[in-house]
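Following up on my earlier thread - several people asked me to post the actual chain instead of describing it. Fair enough. Here it is, all 265 residues.
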Amino acid sequence: MTDQAVRFPERESMEFDVVIVGAGPAGLSAAIRLKQINPELSVVVLEKGGEVGAHILSGAVVDPVGIDRLLPGWREEEGHPFKTEVKDDQFLFLGPASSIRLPNFAMPPLMNNHGNYIVSLGNVCRWLAGHAEALGVEIYPGFAASEVLYNDEGAVIGVATGDMGIEKNGEPGPNYTRGMELLGKYVLIGEGVRGSLAKQLIAKFNLSKDSDVQKFGIGLKELWQVRPENHKPGLVQHSFGWPLGMKTGGGSFLYHLEDNLVAVG
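Reply from S.P.:
Thanks for posting it. Predicted structure:
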């Protein structure tokens, strides 16, 4: 037995049909759809946040076509998160001291938000989690998947959660707890942009071969509560221009939700 095996005992394991990493819209929608197709499947979702939605603050404008297909009766539900329909689209070009509103017909079709809803993605995820659990999906918040597990042939067979209570010197401390192995016939990685497991899998299986390089931007997002006289429910406003130069891509958004809330980014 190696020193590593002595210091770190074998993990306990649980077996499922499908293991999903990430309780975002993608992971939760997949879990719901799997149980709709076959209620007998055992499906588990791991979420690193302390609760579902804790790591998603982003305000968003959502086309309801996906929800219509996944949960056709959602409009009759009390408490669904799609409360604010888009009523006004505005596109502004900013200068140092003023702005010019651009006509909507000049914008590409993807910027047309007619029929869409302004939502909190955190609330959407919590709502989806309720549907998933009602179908029998197991959701484990507060458990971050830290390692991909492979069989002898190199195929992915599951993930492991991180060990807790490791000292600065790398040794187990007095409160040490070994992580768990969650084994699945299928493993779905939905941990978001530049997720740690996704990067490992992209490198190991060369998944980025024959693909363009990824493009990244820095995003800053906040949720504001404004005075009622400054709140316009259903307003979607995008802007670009100052203080960015003409050679620098970027812009900002203001999404007016319910309860005097505005998503700013």
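Confidence is low (pLDDT under 50) at residues 1-6. That should answer part of your original question.
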